[in-house]
């Protein structure tokens, strides 16, 4: 086999085999590269062909074990999230409102194209998935990772479905000799969010056997929203008295819509109990509609996590056995248990909630009812936030992974071949326990007819027809939080247990995969060996997600959801060729083409064929030009096809709203709205509590229904890259790469949104979309809306990656500089197939940063080392807050937003840079101690009232404070 080693090749080889010096594509320097004659042929992510010449047409970079240990991040997810090519976290830990089977996990999203379009591999094999196709990287212990290779290019032709935006390949440790133990502790300078990790890696090997075991325990404490200024209130601590911070459904109990004392309003007034007074006496209530900030309101953020806690326990085993000189057996066994707990405020219960009802006219607790001699007895509507029992969801996920394979090599004449065959099994078992939701029928009974029995107890029913306490427990929702009363919630464990039943949801997914691959060279061309790889796979995915029976029937205030269950099978075959065309010629030191194609046959939608072509050209030894063109696809997931419908209080924006909607400026939209809304000229969208919204997008006051679609077809993509890699001989230890990329995804499987349905109906005039919802005939608010997945529209993004790396050896130590920058020049989408609809840009808006950049400076002198990292996020635009109240927070008032014609008053939010610092020292007894701080200057990002990837007015991917840590490593 012919091989050519040059300056650029050695640099890239060292980067991929020995590791980089930062979170960048950092080829190390040529003169430090290992002697290639001592290197085995290796397989680089993006190609199945093993070769000594590791230069590829695809942009690949590696994060080495050394890089991992020199960071202050304690999980694989945190490490990957700080790679500049990564987009916003799909499910942020800053969004405690997230629900469902994927809540509590951490997921990777390249290019802001969605986590389901980034494929995660472990040693080249797929990481297990949820029914929604999410791959939770928190199931992998960081102690077991040798390096992480990131392919910033589509690779469905090599790996199949999901590899549209890129591929993350996590390589685990093997061939370890000895024992290494690590202790890690850190916390925010505010004194919260502590993180602890303990891990041990032990290995033993000889000429025939290598055994490596990694065990890890990690625990991350939570951070409360009330302890950060940006999350203390909905409008942050800048505007603590803004009415949007406070919900009128409070923990003090209220009567609503009653024409009571002092009330002359036609629709009635609201009343709240005077503190410490008898709740059964009408005179002990005061009006709440005239005094909204007297303690009769609540700030839900007080009970919410801004970062919820989690625990992980992991074990990973790698065993390698040389059966003969040419046949090996390898097994990987992994187990991980992850537990996360999310808390949000107690439920804002209203008597108008279906299945609850008003307080009976014959209730003993009704101050305006029959039993207390009120002049005009009436049943009363009421509100009560159940502050005593916050809504808490604890998710426990157990992950099992097993891979068993044989591999080896053989010769045929002068041809050398590698082969592999094996079986992979993944299983995820989820159990989620939710508390804090009320049993609606029990609440209805509790506020129904009741009387004072002979024992002096309030009992359900009437004296003539009492109801047993085993069947009904009376409840007075008007008793304020903090007041101990026989029929109040505070301190009443028996009543709490009755009204708040525990709900258990279970899920399970399994992946089974048989695979076989062979690679080698077919024959020798004048420029080198023509390499090939061929393989087959047979994979089956099964999954089910079963909500608690109470949730399925809608018996509680939890969002109703049906069960998900199904499976699919795919059989695949691929072929890859590496064709050297020119070599060692003037202007063509090398010209090589690479091509691959993959046939996939699914039992759900049929078959698909996807191909990829690439080239690399070296006009001189120190310069490489590379490029690729690739087709990709993403198959519908089990949840896409077989998911049960579920209720959700979706965030949406109503175009008919006359303050924030497009009807404000469009006569055409107003005309369409008037067909459905009698008061279209003055219509206001309402939020929970029945008050008008104060921002453009807010939660619906009634649950909508989302579901699946069994007729979905795959998404398809086209990706292109073109780049330069330069390692000049006249600048020692310097390397640079610049890559242009463009990805377009068509036929996208989109979670249709209420906002988009309303936009299509009223702004685009698509009548078919108007049938998806209903409006209240009196108020005009949307009361019934169904949305699900569909194939429609496209996503397209384009940009550049620039990586610069330099190292200098001096008498004063080794200095290094590594820089990685991702610039997004365009990011647009259209969620409809109507070509007349102008695509919506998202670049530079919300969490769509135009530029993310990392700069890593390092210095090592004998046993001492330090590193400085700067992580940069460019500025973005977002919708202004209430411009009438806060004009100073609107940089472009009365201007139409550049991303959407109907939206006006937008604001420029500035850039932010977070700085990290670490010091480390190698101790004489084979130990290393490291101390450092992430976000050393305690910098916070800009306030963002649009709440991107967060439940708060702050981007969910920003640092939330200065994090100080210490690591101790002991080698035996």
Mean pLDDT: 87
Helix content: under 10%
> Major sheet, described briefly?
22 strands, antiparallel, barrel
Cα distance spanning the termini: 41 Å
Radius of gyration: 31 Å
Total DSSP E strands: 47
Share of β-strand residues: 35-45%
Shape: globular
Unreliable stretches: 1-39
Please work out how many helical segments DSSP would assign: 12
Classification by helices and strands: mainly beta
Describe this structure in words.
The chain has 12 helices and 47 strands. The protein is globular, with a radius of gyration of 31 Å. It is 8% helix and 44% strand. The strands form 8 sheets. The protein has a 22-stranded antiparallel beta barrel. It has a 5-stranded mixed β-sheet with strand order 1-4-5-2-3. With 972 residues, the chain is mainly beta. The relative contact order is 0.12. The longest helix is centred in the N-terminal third of the chain and has 11 residues. The two termini are 41 Å apart.
List keywords for this structure.
mainly beta; 22-stranded antiparallel beta barrel; disordered N terminus; 972 residues
Provide a quick synopsis of the model.
The chain is 8% helix and 44% strand. It is mainly β.
Question: Could you outline the blueprint of secondary structure elements for this entry?
Answer:
Blueprint: H1 7-17, E1 60-64, H2 65-69, H3 76-81, E2 118-122, E3 125-126, E4 145-151, H4 156-159, E5 166-172, E6 178-188, E7 195-205, E8 209-220, E9 223-224, H5 229-232, E10 254-258, E11 269-273, E12 285-287, E13 305-307, E14 310-322, E15 327-344, E16 348-350, E17 381-385, E18 391-412, E19 415-435, H6 440-446, E20 450-452, E21 458-460, H7 493-499, E22 503-525, E23 528-546, H8 549-553, E24 564-585, E25 588-602, E26 606-620, E27 623-634, H9 638-642, E28 646-648, E29 651-652, H10 667-676, E30 698-699, E31 704-707, E32 715-726, E33 734-746, E34 749-751, H11 754-762, H12 767-770, E35 773-775, E36 782-791, E37 794-810, E38 813-830, E39 840-841, E40 851-861, E41 864-873, E42 876-879, E43 892-896, E44 904-909, E45 912-923, E46 927-934, E47 963-971
């Amino acid at each position: 086999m012919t091989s050519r080693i040059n300056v650029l090749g050695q640099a890239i080889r060292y980067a991929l085999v020995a590791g980089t010096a930062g979170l960048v594509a950092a080829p190390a320097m040529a003169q430090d590269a290992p002697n290639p004659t001592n290197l085995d042929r290796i397989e680089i992510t993006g190609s199945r062909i093993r070769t000594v010449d590791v230069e590829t047409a695809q942009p690949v970079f590696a994060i080495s074990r050394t890089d991992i240990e020199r960071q202050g991040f304690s999980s694989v997810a945190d490490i990957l999230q700080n790679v500049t090519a990564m987009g916003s976290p799909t499910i942020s830990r800053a969004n405690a409102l997230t629900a469902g089977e994927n809540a509590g996990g951490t997921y990777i999203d390249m290019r802001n194209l969605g986590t389901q379009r980034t494929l995660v591999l472990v040693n080249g094999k797929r990481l297990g998935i949820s029914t929604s196709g999410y791959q939770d990287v928190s199931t992998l212990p960081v102690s077991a990772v040798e390096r992480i290779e990131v392919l910033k290019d589509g690779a469905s032709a090599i790996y199949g479905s999901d590899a549209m935006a890129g591929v993350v390949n996590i390589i685990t440790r093997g061939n370890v000799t000895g024992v290494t133990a690590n202790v890690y502790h850190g916390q925010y300078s505010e004194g919260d969010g502590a993180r602890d990790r303990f891990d041990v890696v032990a290995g033993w090997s000889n000429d025939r056997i290598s055994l490596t075991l990694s065990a890890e325990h990690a625990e991350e404490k939570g951070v409360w929203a009330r302890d950060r200024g940006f999350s203390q209130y909905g409008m942050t601590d800048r505007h603590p008295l803004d009415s949007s911070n406070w919900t009128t459904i409070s923990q003090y109990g209220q009567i609503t819509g009653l024409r009571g004392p002092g009330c002359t309003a036609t629709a009635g007034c609201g009343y709240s109990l005077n503190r410490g007074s008898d709740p059964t006496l009408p005179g002990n209530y005061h009006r709440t509609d005239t005094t909204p900030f007297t303690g009769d309101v609540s700030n839900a953020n007080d009970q919410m996590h801004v970062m919820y806690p989690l625990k992980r326990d992991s074990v990973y085993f790698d065993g390698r056995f040389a059966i003969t000189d040419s046949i090996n057996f390898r097994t990987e066994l992994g187990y991980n248990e992850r537990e996360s707990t999310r808390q949000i405020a107690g439920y804002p219960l209203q008597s108008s909630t279906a299945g609850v009802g008003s307080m009976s006219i014959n209730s003993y607790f009704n101050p305006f009812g029959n039993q207390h001699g009120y002049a005009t007895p009436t049943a009363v509507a009421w509100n009560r936030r159940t502050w005593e029992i916050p809504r808490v969801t604890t998710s426990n996920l157990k992950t099992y992974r097993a891979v068993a394979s044989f591999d080896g090599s053989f010769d045929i004449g002068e041809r050398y071949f590698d082969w592999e065959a094996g079986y992979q099994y993944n299983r995820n078992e989820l159990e989620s326990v939710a508390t804090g939701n009320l049993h609606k029928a029990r609440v209805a009974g509790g506020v129904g007819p009741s009387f004072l029995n002979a024992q002096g107890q309030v009992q359900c029913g009437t004296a003539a027809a009492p109801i047993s306490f085993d069947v009904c427990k009376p409840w007075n929702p008007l008793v304020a939080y903090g007041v101990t009363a026989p029929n109040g919630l505070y301190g009443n464990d028996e009543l709490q247990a009755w009204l708040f039943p525990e709900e258990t949801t279970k899920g399970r997914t399994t992946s089974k995969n048989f695979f076989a691959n062979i690679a080698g060279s077919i024959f020798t061309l004048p420029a080198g060996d023509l390499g090939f790889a061929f393989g087959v796979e047979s994979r089956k995915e099964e999954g089910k997600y079963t909500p608690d029976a109470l949730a399925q029937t809608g018996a509680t205030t939890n969002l109703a959801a049906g069960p998900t269950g199904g499976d699919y099978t795919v059989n695949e075959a691929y072929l890859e060729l590496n064709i050297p065309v020119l070599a060692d010629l003037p202007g063509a030191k090398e010209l090589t083409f690479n091509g691959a194609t993959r046939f996939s046959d699914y039992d759900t939608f049929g078959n698909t064929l996807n191909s990829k072509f690439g080239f690399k050209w070296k006009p001189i030894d120190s310069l490489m030009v590379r490029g690729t063109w690739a087709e990709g696809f993403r198959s519908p997931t089990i949840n896409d096809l077989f998911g049960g419908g579920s209720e959700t209080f979706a965030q949406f924006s109503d175009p008919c709203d006359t303050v924030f909607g497009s009807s404000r400026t469009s006569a055409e939209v107003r005309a369409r709205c008037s067909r459905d809304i009698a008061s279209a000229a003055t219509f206001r969208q309402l939020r929970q509590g029945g008050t008008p919204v104060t921002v453009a997008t807010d939660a619906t006051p009634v649950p909508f229904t989302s579901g699946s679609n069994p007729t979905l077809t795959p998404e398809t993509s086209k990706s292109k890259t073109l780049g330069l890699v330069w390692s000049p001989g006249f600048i020692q230890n310097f390397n640079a790469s610049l890559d242009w990329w463009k990805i377009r995804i068509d036929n996208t499987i989109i979670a249709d949104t209420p906002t988009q349905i309303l936009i299509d109906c009223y702004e685009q005039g698509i009548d078919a979309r108007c049938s998806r919802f209903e409006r209240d005939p009196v108020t005009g608010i949307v009361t019934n809306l169904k949305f699900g997945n569909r194939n429609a529209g496209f996503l397209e993004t384009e940009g550049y990656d620039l990586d610069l790396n330099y190292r200098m050896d001096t008498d004063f130590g080794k200095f290094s500089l590594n820089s990685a920058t991702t610039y997004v020049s365009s990011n647009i989408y259209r969620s409809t197939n109507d070509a007349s609809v102008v695509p919506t840009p998202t670049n530079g808006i919300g969490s769509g940063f135009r530029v993310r950049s990392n700069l890593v400076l390092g210095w090592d002198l004998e046993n001492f080392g330090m590193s400085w990292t700067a992580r940069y996020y460019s500025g973005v635009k977002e919708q202004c807050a209430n411009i009438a109240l806060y004009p100073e927070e609107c940089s472009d008032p009365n201007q139409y937003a550049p991303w959407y014609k109907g939206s006006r008053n937008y604001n420029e939010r500035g850039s932010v840079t977070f700085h990290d610092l670490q010091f480390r020292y190698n101790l004489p007894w084979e130990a290393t101690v490291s101390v450092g701080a992430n976000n050393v200057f305690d910098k916070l990002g800009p306030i963002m009232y649009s709440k991107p990837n967060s439940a708060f007015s702050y981007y969910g991917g920003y640092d939330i404070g200065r994090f100080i840590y210490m690591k101790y490593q002991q080698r035996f």
